User: Fold this.
Amino acid sequence: MARTRKYPIPWFVLAMIMAFLTMSTVQVIWLRSSIEMKKQIFTDNVFHSLSQVGEIATRPTTGILQLELEALSQAQSSATLVQPGRASIGDGLDEAEARMLRRFDAFHLDSLIGISLQKHGIEIPWVMGVFDRYGQPVRLAEADEMYRTNLEVTPFQTATETLSIRLHFPSLPRYLLYNLLGQFALTGLMLSIIAWGFFSAVIGAARNKRIDRIRRDLMNNLTHELKTPISTIGLASEALGDPDMLKDADGTKHYIALIKEENKRLGVLVENVLQASLADSGKMQLYMQSINAHDLIKEVLRNLAIQIRKRGGRVELLLDANNPIIEADRIHFTNVIFNLIDNALKYSLGDPHLTITTVQATDGLELRFQDNGIGIAKEHLGKVFDSLYRVPTGNVHDVKGFGLGLSYVQTVVERHNGRIRVESELEKGSTFILLLPQ
Assistant:
């Protein structure tokens, strides 16, 4: 059974996670403190307003005494006191409570509270009720009856002798949030910036680590690819330097051919690296000319005929396009075809079988390179054209490469205003599809 490899989380990622959580916690605590402070300021202002109202309502003045005498004489001829739109004072109130209610009416208590609240910067809707010493309402507007429970438990109240004036603010939570809307937005912005920086740093670090690994693999593969032909050339040169070898004409020809072959291999290797470098730097120069794509494909196949036979492969041509003429750079487009055929040979399952098809599309010439290779997993399909990227294959075929070929192919195709994509399934092969404008 395969064992899943576990990768430890890098220390800098843990440090950034801790920093992000710490900053988030600080912001939340600061926001809560701001809400509490705003609520405390509001509470203090309400209590100051109620204290002023209570002080004015209980302050003895000549005018108030005159009003109370007139109200007392009127009360003797009336069993109850009823105000329009107000609940009745009710029976059972003692003289002090009735006198205080008359004083509230004389002062227009509603207006007095509104002015005092506005003076302290409070301009949100409020509900007022007057309660006796037993917590029962003795003055409450009929429209405010729904808030009776809230008034019974409200902290905003002040005592005036045996009665208490109580206030309730139905929209207080919304008012506090609205006043802190700017701070909420600032906190959200700061947390978003911190999160963006955190994830960008983590993604960047992961990408750098991957590039580091790819570069390391590139150097290892490059070293391997260089050492083999260099060693072969060195051994062949030593053999040719042997005096006995001068007597063996066939042996001499063999070693000379070997040196030429390995030298050609080194040339191709250098050319591939140079092409990839030019593609990445954007300095690739194109010399456009009319080219017959069918003839170019056949020419590349003739040059690769020995390599194809050596691998026991075969190539099937289905060149059905009516108009194979395209405007392209001959050298670079030849390299594109060579790379795609070379990939098909290297990653084949058993004897390579490659089918090359051309189709006349409505917007250009379509070329298909279909192989019977090992295929590409779905999670790697979007990365095969990335520079230095190689699809993990374990030790299958021990294929050596640099992850430069397909990146170069895509660059050349796009410089020709074309498109390239790949369709693949594991162990069933891959199909590279090129669409070139005409």
